[in-house]
Amino acid sequence: MRKVELKPMEQMKYETIKNLVTNNGNKLNAANKLGISLRQVNRLIIKYNEQGKEGFIHGNRKKSPHLIIKVEIKNKILNLYNNKYYNFNFKHFKEMLLENEKIKISYNSLYNLLDENLILSPKAERITKRKYRDRIQTKIDLNESLSIQEKNLIIDNNILDPKDNHARLPRKKYGGELLQMDASEHLWFGDKKTHLHAAIDDATGMLVGAYFDHQETLIGYYNVLKQTLENHGIPNEFLTDRRTIFDYKSLKNPKPEYSTLTQFGYACEQLGITLNVTSIPQAKGRIERLFGTLQSRLINELRINNIKTIVQANEFLQSYLDKFNKQFSLINDNIPQVYEKINSDTDLNLILAVISSRVFDRGSALKYQNKYFQAYNKNGNLMNFKHRTKAIVIKSFDNKLYCLINSDYYKLIELESHESHSKDFDLGVEKEKKKYTVPNSHPWKSDSYNRMIERAMYKSR
């Protein structure tokens, strides 16, 4: 008798039915255990009695799927592409296979087949070429031998050439016309890596703002923007990374009127600043070169000044910016500026804010960051709003909380879990407790009280 090997699920079915038949068990319990009906249990009992353990082997065991591509067809496709349809892009090649060779294959299956054999499409994007290049470069670094396909890939596609070739661009004509912004993670000071957020003027090369933070954060970029606005004015355009901090488009509503602006994008919109993003580092080469310069200079400056914390580093940057700009920027070339002045009534704390939507509950309070808040008007009076009233919560740059309801601003004050003051017990002066004296007429003292009265009357005689 040949040995029958079952998979875990098949083994569980076999053991359950075996115990059911051997011990004359309950079919309903067996059905619940296996998650099947009583009718299926009866079928398994019949299969067990007729075939034994072998009857529990799945019928598709050792069968090839009917959709699998045969090895002969794969070899034919590869031979056709290498000898007849070379330099065809993969989609065009798929069409030719169906039209001329009567071979029907899906695009994904064709792409995977050609990719496994290191065949690169003439229309391959940079990310695909980079994947091939990194794979080959790793082999070269490890002194591993390259296959014939990999060698041909290097020759035919110049796969080990520089990753991206971008022509040098001239500087913008006016200062403030374009600012490039980014953040750099590095061991700037201490023993932990931090992120330096910075912005540079494309026309003048001036470092207009810089700020350290533990991570690349919205607060870091807000501080850079605030420095720019206070020291120079409102720029015309920002060019940044394609990150969610700057750019996010809703997938459900791709129309412009329904697109979702991020917090930073909203702040730029309020100030009239154009915000553009790019995924190509070379497109914002000035900020990338700036970080190269700072990593060779600023680190040493921070070390010799014994800077150990982020607070100390940000204080040091305030004086370092002037020193850096005097040495490296083109401020002495009389380049015209197009920065706009900020209106005196503009509140930057409300513009550089974090905005979110909330609704009031039945207790006229809203929940924000796991805490409950109530709204107060300008006169300090508590405002009661209906259940489900929508509000826009604004966390200002100076960490104050406001809410906007129907174009009216209200201050949010945290609702404490317990009262901080008691009108009965917190009077400023400790209340003197009244001392209780047991009266002489109390039953406990009646005997001694009567004796005292008798002694007093006796002495008075």
Structure description:
There is one protein chain. The protein is α+β, with helices and mostly antiparallel strands and 461 residues long. Among the domains are: 8-56; 179-333, Ribonuclease H-like superfamily/Ribonuclease H (Nucleotidyltransferase, domain 5, 2-Layer Sandwich). It is built from 14 helices and eleven strands. The strands form two sheets. It has a six-stranded antiparallel sheet with strand order 6-9-10-11-8-7, with no helix packed on it. A five-stranded mixed sheet has the order 3-2-1-4-5, with helices on both faces. Strand 7 and strand 8 form a beta hairpin. Helix 1 runs antiparallel to helix 2 (27-34) and helix 1 (8-22) packs across helix 3. The longest helix is centred in the middle third of the chain and has 20 residues, at 285-304. Mean pLDDT is 82; it is low at 254-260.
The named CATH superfamily of the domain at 179-333 = Ribonuclease H-like superfamily/Ribonuclease H
> Stretches where pLDDT falls below 50 for ≥5 residues?
254-260
Second-tier CATH architecture of the domain at 179-333: 2-Layer Sandwich
> DSSP strand (E) fraction?
5-15%
- Globally, the shape reads flat
State the order of secondary-structure elements, H for helix, E for strand.
Answer: HHHHHHHHEEEHEHEHHHEEEEEEH
Helix- and strand-based class?
alpha+beta
Compute the number of strand runs.
11
Helical fraction: 25-40%
Organism: Haploplasma axanthum (Acholeplasma axanthum)
GO molecular function: nucleic acid binding
Domain Integrase catalytic: 166-344
Protein name: Integrase core domain
